[in-house]
From TrEMBL:
Coiled coil: none annotated. This is MFS transporter. The keyword Membrane applies. It is a multi-pass membrane protein. Keywords: Membrane, Transmembrane, Transmembrane helix. It comes from the Bacteria. It comes from Streptomyces armeniacus. The chain crosses the membrane at residues 17-39, 45-67, 105-127, 139-163, 169-188, 213-237, 249-271, 278-294, 300-323, 335-358, 364-383. It is found in: Cell membrane. One of its GO terms (molecular function) is transmembrane transporter activity. Residues 393-423 are annotated as: Disordered.
Length: 423
């Protein structure tokens, strides 16, 4: 297992791109917690905190596919760095101005979310050109999911440490400054500067003309909803126990669980098509979220949070492969950015919904919303299994093998993998 990942990271530029993207995505990964902590410190309610987090999430959801399409058309440096700077400036205004003028606070959070750079989609678009070999691309998708969960493990802890040693406003400023540096480190690299998307068919729907992709996005909306509710419910649980650091324990445990799950998942090549496997992984994910509603003592709750995260990174890694299989040619960054968008919209819906739910029924009711989100994601995958399991449509609507997807540069039946029996 370690040898495979070491081989991947020894590839030229791989470590730099992964690390830069990881740091560049910190503002987005910690925004929900950072906004909630800042609003509460300013005297705002959970409802206001949830609404502001929802504004950020919706703005991110709107901005990611639009910026992703711009990257496909214009290249990464022209889009990624300016958007990272504008996003950081928006959050900086929010941190400095506070809640004194609410319209300004809402506008600042809106700008911060709208211009969040599509670094996730950009990295996944770079992997085939950087790694060359199909087995390395497979491992990279899993490692990418693990890195994302590392952010969710380290990010909340970093935010709470900055709050403890400084204050909530400083935490927002430092995290977003780091985000700009991470984006800069990525876009000045040779792979990012040289990357160009494949030619694309002009279509106003872009990547969304794929029915399979739309079905996948519908399911991962509810995964995002679950994660958005957990972030706010964890803060409420910590408040009930009189220690704000408890929220970081829970979120870091969830991220650590996903880290372990992702490492184990990416250590092997999986037989068969990824769509049936994705349904199993999301079912396990839902089963892990449901017990959180019991809200036991802090130690037991931390263990439950860790267990609930075990299947998150594997589900994400598998979803990346499904995106590859269903994304129309020339829309790779946009398609992956739509996956980020569903998380943004889902998390926004979750944070907006869970505030009033917590005020009505306490943290347990908030965590119950997360469990229901996981169940809903599984229901969508089951309801759309025929669409997801059907090969993509080619020119004129004819059925073609998924080997025609943009990222399948070697003609394999599963994009980015070595043989027709691997996914």
């Amino acid at each position: 297992m370690a040898t495979g990942y070491a081989d991947l990271l020894r590839a030229k530029h791989a470590m730099r791109l992964l690390a830069g993207t990881l740091v560049g995505r910190l503002p987005n990964a910690t925004a929900a917690l950072g906004i909630v902590l800042f609003v509460r410190a300013e005297g705002g309610s959970y409802t206001l905190a949830g609404v502001l987090s929802a504004v950020y999430g919706v703005a991110t959801a709107v901005g990611q596919p639009s910026l992703g399409r711009a990257v496909d058309l214009l290249g990464q440096p022209r889009v990624m760095l300016p958007s990272a700077v504008l996003s950081a400036l928006g959050m900086g205004v929010f941190a400095v101005a506070g809640l004194g003028v609410l319209p300004l606070a809402f506008a600042a959070v809106l700008v911060a979310g709208l211009f969040t750079p599509p670094l996730e989609g950009g990295l996944r678009a770079l992997w085939p050109n950087v790694l060359k070999r199909e087995d390395r691309v497979h491992a990279a998708y899993a490692l990418d999911a693990v890195a994302q969960e590392l952010m969710f493990a380290v990010g909340p802890l970093l935010v709470t440490l900055l709050v403890a040693f400084w204050n909530e406003a400083a935490a927002l400023l430092v995290i977003n400054a780091l985000g700009v540096l991470g984006a800069l480190w990525v876009v000045v690299s040779p792979p990012s500067r040289e990357w160009r998307s494949a030619p694309r068919e002009a279509h106003w729907l872009g990547a969304l003309r794929s029915r399979g992709l739309v079905a996948l996005l519908g399911a991962f909306f509810f995964v995002g909803l679950a994660l958005g509710t957990i972030a706010v419910a964890a803060v409420a649980y910590a408040d009930d126990h009189g220690d704000s650091l408890i929220s970081s324990y829970l979120l870091s445990a969830l991220g650590a669980g996903a880290l372990v799950g992702g490492i184990l998942y990416g250590a092997r090549l999986w037989a068969g098509a990824p769509e049936p496997r994705l349904r199993i992984l999301v079912a396990a994910l839902a089963a892990g979220y449901l017990p959180l509603a019991l809200t036991p003592g802090v130690a037991a709750m931390t263990v439950l949070a860790g267990v609930s995260g075990l299947f998150l990174a594997p589900a994400l890694a598998c979803a990346f492969v499904v995106v590859d299989r269903h994304a129309p040619r020339g829309t790779v960054t946009e398609a992956f950015s739509w996956l980020v968008t569903t998380f943004g919209v889902g998390a926004a819906a979750g944070t907006g919904l869970v505030g009033p739910v917590i005020e009505w029924g306490g943290p347990g009711a908030g965590f119950a919303v997360a469990g229901l989100g996981g169940v809903a994601a599984l229901a969508v995958l089951l309801a759309t299994r025929r669409v997801l399991d059907t090969p993509a449509a080619g020119p004129g609507g004819a059925s073609v093998p998924v080997a025609g997807s943009e990222n399948d540069r070697n003609g394999a039946a599963d994009a980015g993998f070595r043989t027709g029996h691997q996914a």
